[in-house]
Amino acid sequence: MNIDLAALPDDVETLQGLVRSLAAERATLTEAQAGIERLQLIIKKLQRSQFGRRAERLNEDQLQLGLEDLNVDLARIEAKLPSGGEKTSRTASRRPGR
Questions:
Q1: Which tens digits make up the pLDDT trace of 7-49?
Q2: What's the distance, CA 61 to chain centroid?
Q3: How far apart are CA 43 and CA 11, in angstroms?
Q4: Helices 12-51 and 60-80 meet at what angle, rounded to 10?
Q5: CA-based angle 84:24:86, to the nearest 5?
Q6: What is the largest CA-CA distance in the chain?
Q7: How far apart are CA 96 and CA 1, in angstroms?
């Protein structure tokens, strides 16, 4: 959020309201980012168990079920994020596969 410092109100209560709203937005953003990081760690664990050196092979259907649940959770968390210019998903920056 960009704030025009010259246009800030002189009223203390209004300024306190602005600070509270910014703090609430920051808390929501922090929660969403923590959720995304948690889901990305789960994905890495699943990938490591699927493709790691000593991996026990998972059934493809089991892996897809886990990934579908993660995609739903990830989409729900990203929907909570305020729309901005920065990308939160790494899938948008990946090149298409062969």
A1: 788 888 988 888 899 999 999 999 999 999 999 999 888 888 7
A2: 26
A3: 48
A4: 170
A5: 15
A6: 64
A7: 33
Q: Residue 3 to residues 7, 9, 14, 84: CA-CA distances in angstroms?
A: 8, 11, 14, 15
The domain locations on the chain are 34-80
The H-or-E segment that residue 43 falls in is helix 12-51
Contacts of 58 (CB under 8 A, 6+ apart): 46, 49, 50
**Counting beta carbons within 10 angstroms of the beta carbon of residue 74, is it exposed (0 to 12), middle (13 to 18) or buried (19 or more)?**
buried
Q: Whose structure tokens read 């959720």? A: 35
Q: Shortest CA distance to 78 belongs to which of 24, 25, 33, 41? A: 33
Q: Give the residue carrying structure tokens 């059934």.
A: 59
Residue 85 belongs to what H/E stretch?
Answer: none
